[in-house]
Amino acid sequence: MLSGWFENASEWLRLAVIFAGAAMVGFILAWLTFKAIRWYGKKHDYLLLRSVNSNLRTPMLWLAPILFALAAPSSLGIPAEKVATVNLLLEIAMYIAGGALFVQLSDVVSDLMLDRYRIDLQDNLEERKILTQFHYLKRVVTAVAVVVVIAFVLLQFDRVRELGAGLLASAGVAGIIIGLAAQKSIANLLAGFQLAFTQPIRIDDVVIVEGEWGKIEEITLTYVVIRIWDERRLVVPLNYFNENPFQNWTRSSSQLLGYVFLYTDYRLPVDALRKHYFDIVEQHEKWDGRVRNIQVTNSDRHTMELRILMSARNAPDAWDLRCAVREQLITFIQENYPECLPRTRVELPNGPLGDSLNG
């Protein structure tokens, strides 16, 4: 009896050494491989190799030992039934590590896409189109990968498979219930596909949503994050952009017309103000050279309304240019034509009171 126990113990110890040794060999080979990739990538400044090292190193350091440990028993002629439990655990770990590797592989592609299509340029419309589609597809692929990994793990257990076969009988009712419960989620998912390819919004678009000015920062499977100008974040569901009107200032181009309204007295010489405005805008770095103009757009019995038009490369430049022009034109009027600032006129009737005040 004691000798049998020692035989079993020695057999398990031998199997443990085989699995551990194979896993160690796999780990060392993967570690050396990524060490070489890191060295070569740094030496030659290859983005692909640097991205592979930073994104795939950790999942491969898990996956390689698992694969070597799985292959060891069969390569040494050990019967599969002796290591069935260990193989089951290793297969589950392999699916999880493989799924993580697949998800991280999409990050490698993302690094290459971000390097190829840069959105920190002035004219970045095409780049934002492509990156918006890619980011959404990446999230869909990640979600699908997680579901597939969970399915493969569950299929390793006989009881789960039997339970699944039993549930098929009631799949119709369950499908209706799940469909009703997930109606909004499915609608958002379909809206996401529509947004990704029709592209009423894109990453880094300048939009006005719910009265807030901001930029599209992130598009997920179910919602969109908008970075407001004061660094708040506005989160709205994807379907919002299919069901509600909103402003997109960079839909086809980032160029914008900015405007400033001034209200002055009728005595202001508009030509003098126009000449000074041209001098201001021509010297300003934010003006793109397309549009500059001053027009009297309205008048009432108190003031005349001046609209000052200017053009800029993008919304932030247009905002800064508007503020600078407004400030300098007001200063010009204050210093040169103070009598032309808006004022209220009162006409007093003839009579003792009027004569005394007028006199």
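Next protein, fold it too.
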Amino acid sequence: MIRENDITIIVSTGDPAGTGPVISVKALKHFKKNRIHLLGDRTQLERLIEKYAPEFLEKTDELLKYSESKNIDSITPSEKTGKLSFEYFENSVDLVLNNKDSVLVTAPISKELWLKGGINYKGHTDYFNKRFKNESIMFFFSENMKIALFTHHIPLKELWRYLTKNRIELFIKTLDYELNKRFKLNLKLVSGSVNPHAGEEGYLGDEEEKLIIPVLEKLNKTGMEISGPYPNDTVFFKYKDRKDIAIVSYTHDIGLSPFKLINFFTGVNLTLNIPLIRTSPDHGTGFDLVNKIDIDENSMVQSLELAIKLRENERE
């Protein structure tokens, strides 16, 4: 359990038809001394508190200070639940921006239901990019593996349009600043590759030789510590369990496949290069799991703990 502090935790409970409301409420018992506000459907959350965290019943009004009932008759995935999850999320962002000693933790949403509900964002990261007019970084954090994604949700065929020296350099500089200067995590950076065997000195592709290596050499001359590029089929195994290493992955699936294989119920999605702290469980809505199994809240607990730690580090 995290020690008591003056940081306010704002939790957007995600799609009301998914696992988000359950894991948000179940996580409360791990943070009995922290100031937490859950944003979601008040009636649903009241029912879940009574079931999973009855010791918090006396604190319901404070916990649900920013929630109201939305008359959800049957909580099944729909355009309505997609719209509501966006409303909870956007209201949570506004609350955090208006309170400098607060952090944001977001439970899972459905990108498909956002789009079907008329929400023109391809998820949380796309929203941050457009609202703050910058390129945020998707960073995945666990004790045994840390992965930074150079590209997010793009078709693989579009990678070559993004893979330029300027973009790679800016990405790595921003990543180093966020991790080591802003949040003081003291992580060494390691670069993965694009081509099989890191291009095999150009025989299997020349992007490493022409783009990645020159940038890494330039950055190392400035005093930044980043090694690679290493072949993707070995880099994750080599640096697994190294708590002091963050690996740069140039595509979404290359980075997240090994990460989720090892950390599906413990990983945290951290958004970097935005003017607030935002973390999220590294799993989806689990529409097919609600009311069928005992939903594990560990990833939500890890998300809350990391958000608090980063805010404390940022204030030092």
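About the second fold: Residues 79-97 form the longest helix (19 residues).
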